[in-house]
UniProtKB/TrEMBL annotation:
Regions annotated as coiled coil: 44-71
Top-level taxon of origin: Bacteria
Pfam families: Exonuc_VII_S
Keyword line: Coiled coil, Cytoplasm, Exonuclease, Hydrolase, Nuclease
Keyword Methyltransferase appears in the UniProt entry: no
Homology family: Belongs to the XseB family.
UniProt function note: Bidirectionally degrades single-stranded DNA into large acid-insoluble oligonucleotides, which are then degraded further into small acid-soluble oligonucleotides.
Molecular function in Gene Ontology: exodeoxyribonuclease VII activity
The name this protein goes by in its record: Exodeoxyribonuclease 7 small subunit
Listed EC numbers: 3.1.11.6
Gene that specifies this protein: xseB
Subunit structure: Heterooligomer composed of large and small subunits.
């Protein structure tokens, strides 16, 4: 597993912020820009997946809570 994939959500988001700042710097090379862009896409996907999983977990908890209330 690569270092990028081991980041927590918060670490990945923080790294994305750093990448955006670097990409806004017009003095970086094209090769570095492409590498940063690729890393950013990977981190963005990881963040999206993490948020989607969290949403599903929250929905599951909410549904279970509603089911328990209905059975009372």
């Amino acid at each position: 597993m690569s270092k990028k994939e081991q980041f927590s959500f918060e670490e990945a988001l923080s790294r994305l912020e750093v990448i955006v700042e670097k990409l806004e710097d017009e003095s970086i090379s094209l090769d570095e820009s492409i590498a940063l862009y690729e890393e950013g896409i990977t981190l963005s996907k990881k963040c999206t997946e993490t948020l989607e999983e969290a949403e599903l977990r929250i929905q599951h908890v909410a549904e279970n809570h509603t089911d328990k209330k209905e059975n009372e």
